[in-house]
Amino acid sequence: MFDKKEYDRVRYLRLREKILVVHKSVSGRARRQKWEDENRKNINTKTTAWRHAHPEAAHAAVQKWMKIHAKAYYKKWNADNPQRLKVYRSRWGAKNPSSIKSMRHRRRARKMSAAGNTSAAQLQARVDFYGNRCAYCSGSYEAVDHVIPLSRGGSNWPANLRPACKRCNSSKRAKKLSEWKMVG
After folding, report:
1. N or C, which terminus of the chain has less Cβ within 10 Å?
2. 1-11: per-residue pLDDT in tens?
3. pLDDT above 70 for 52
4. Which of 159, 153, 78, 152 lies closest to 117, judged by CA?
5. 113 in the Ramachandran plot: left (φ > 0), alpha (ψ -120 to 50) or beta?
6. 112 and 151 in contact (C-beta within 8 Å)?
7. In this structure, how many other beta carbons lie within 10 angstroms of the beta carbon of residue 108?
8. Considering Cα of 80, then 86, then 89, then 95, what sign does the dihedral take?
9. Could you give the C-alpha distances from 16 to 3, 19, 24, in angstroms and in order?
């Protein structure tokens, strides 16, 4: 009876020297790269056709790649494109002022080790609750005030936040609401 495994083993031993010489001269990665370079146009055409024929699978493949490589990709892109990044962030900030304000508040609260976290949507809901006016004097809303200041152990939960005008927020400073109302 013919044994395929044995035949392949004997054949390999007989041709071993030739096989090793070929493989040592050009590594697998180099061979693949050379082949890809020679066939780049054909590869791109087939890849594009596949993407159009299988949009869900193509999207899933991109998502999988991004999950694995995104951090390094964006780190490199940011380092290679500082001017474009600056323009992008500037435009994003102009379109999302409430998000910028919320991020600043979260950062300040983290630095003070305050409990709680307020999203931009929650902050906007608080401002809307007070009609986009100062909670203390009904002036125009310009700042966010912590009823119990972060420096006095206050939290960054939405219940501790009030919209305030700059005058009220500046005069209140690090006082609790009850202390400030006695003075003002």
Report:
1. N
2. 678 888 888 88
3. yes
4. 159
5. left
6. yes
7. 13
8. negative
9. 20, 5, 12
pTM comes to: 0.51
Task: Indicate the domain borders of the chain.
Answer: 96-173
Instruction: Give the right CATH number for 96-173 from 1.10.10, 2.40.50, 2.60.40, 1.10.30.
Output: 1.10.30
Strand 143-146, strand 161-164: pairing: antiparallel
Range 24-52 average pLDDT: 85
Return the pLDDT at 162: 92
Q: What is the pLDDT of residue 22?
A: 63
CA–CA separation, 75 and 66 (whole Å): 13
- Nearest CA to 179 out of 152, 157, 156 is that of 152
